[in-house]
Amino acid sequence: MPLKKLDRLLGVEIQRLRTAKRWSQEHLAEVANLHRTYISQLERGLKSPSVRVLYQIATALGVTMSALLEAVEESLDADE
């Protein structure tokens, strides 16, 4: 599995959770204590977050890291 695919699917899941809350990238960035452009890069699959950043984003979105990653794994399985 190409790692870029994993980054892209993680970004899609972050964006899905963010838009479900009707939050802008700027608002998520503020709540997660990150920069908006970094959120944008994550959502487009251009960056791969550290565990610390993944924790900050999951916490801001009100989900656990495991729930976030489980959704990504399900997307991976569906693509295969």
Properties at a glance:
single chain, 80 residues, 434 Repressor (Amino-terminal Domain), 5 helices, 0% strand, DNA binding, DNA-binding, DNA-binding transcription factor activity
Structure, described:
With 80 residues, this protein is mainly alpha-helical. The protein has a single domain, classed as lambda repressor-like DNA-binding domains (434 Repressor (Amino-terminal Domain)), CATH 1.10.260. 75% of the residues lie in helices and 0% in strands. The chain contains five helices and no strands. The protein has helices spanning 3-20, 25-32, 36-43, 51-61, 65-79. The chain is globular.
Radius of gyration using CA atoms only: 12 Å
What top-tier CATH class fits best?
A: Mainly Alpha
Q: Which structural category do the helix and sheet elements fall into?
A: mainly alpha
CATH topology: 434 Repressor (Amino-terminal Domain)
User: Tally the helices: what do you get?
Assistant: 5
Question: Secondary-structure element sequence?
Answer: HHHHH
| Overall average residue pLDDT | 95
How many distinct domains? 1
- What is the count of β-strands? 0
End-to-end gap: 9 Å
Helicity, as a percent range: over 70%
The major beta sheet can be summarized as:
none
Pfam family, one: HTH_3
Domain HTH cro/C1-type: 14-68
Protein name: Helix-turn-helix transcriptional regulator
GO molecular function: DNA binding; DNA-binding transcription factor activity
Question: Quick gist of this model?
Answer:
The protein has five helices and no strands. By secondary structure, the chain is mostly helical. Helix 2 crosses helix 3 and helix 2 crosses helix 4.
